[in-house]
Amino acid sequence: MGDHSPGFESDLDEGSIVARAQDGDLAAFEHLVLTYQYRLFRLAYRMLNDRGEAEDIVQETLTTSWCALPMLADADAFGGWIYRLATNKCLDVLRKRSAHAESIVDSDDMEAIPGVRARSLPAGLDPAHEAEWSAEQDGLTALLKTLPPAQRACWLLREMHGRSYAEIGVTLKMSPAAVRGTLARARHQIAEGMSQWR
Amino acid sequence: MALDDVPRLGCGRSIDSIWATIDRPPTAHEEQCEHCQTARTRLERLSEATRELRESDLHDPALKPGPGIKDAIMDVARAEVRRGSRILLRSAGNGTTEISEQALSSIVRSAAAAIPGVHSRRCRIEIRPAAAALAGEDHPSGPTGTAATSGPRLIVNLRVAAAPGIDIPLMAEALRHEISNAIPAGVGIGAGTVNITVEDLYDV
Q: Do A20 and B159 touch (CB under 8 A)?
């Protein structure tokens, strides 16, 4: 007995793992860290485009979650809760960034805008699908950077992480209908941007 | 309000409605409407790129945090480990004996693991002191003797998730039996009451 209870069944449902972590079980908490650190990193990286800051978000979010876990009323709500913590930390970072550098244009971002970047890419006649796909992805990620933070969060949470409208709404303090509208605008903007590319 | 904000095409349809059926063949209207066709082509391209990005991000080794991150998180957790409250097992003139709630819960959990179709969740344990144990001084029992029968009694409140379709009363009885045996065997105190709450059904 002790920190790593040996009776940790491998087929446990997530709610039960969360409940054990709430009671202070470190092995259960470690399992949650292993499960969520990659998801949260992908979210934070696509929000912030900075590895170091994304790692900070993962670390802060999961560390905070350990202390706050006992207060979580519903063990099955852990996923939504941890995504909410991480998303709001990302939005905080972006707010601080824009407060610090209101008028500075990031040269990396300029280069990443598809219209600018496309000129340096080979013409779209290349039949190699792989190359084409990765070019499409470059375009998509570059356009993503141009979306306003809340729209970007909305798009990432839904399209990359499959979170529900209701949950995204709670995270971004919007109604599910507003989430739907924000997503539609994000898709529209990205699709427009991609169509102007090449 | 937000619904009216949704971008609309020249034909009046929303981008959303095209997106919703992007994986299906075009509708009769979409086949004839120029606006819809353009939008559909663009959204199909976006849909494909989205799917590709999701896949490649998932498997991209560069999109993982460094190994030190998990260690740093666990270091903090270990430093602030929670053991729950301490339960006073015995108080006498020559000292007290306490056990952490967490140590007791781990006995409860390993006992519960023996019952199929049930996952233990949160566990709260209290103690009801026996009148004799409270009086302390003139405790008549032998050196180790009768703690399990006449000493303080534990009250175990265990929440569980059960497999769907399981016979809950039967499962709860088996669980209670298992826990009631494991606690005296593990710490030498009787489990007076074992309250079980099924708070969820888990997907198998």
A: no
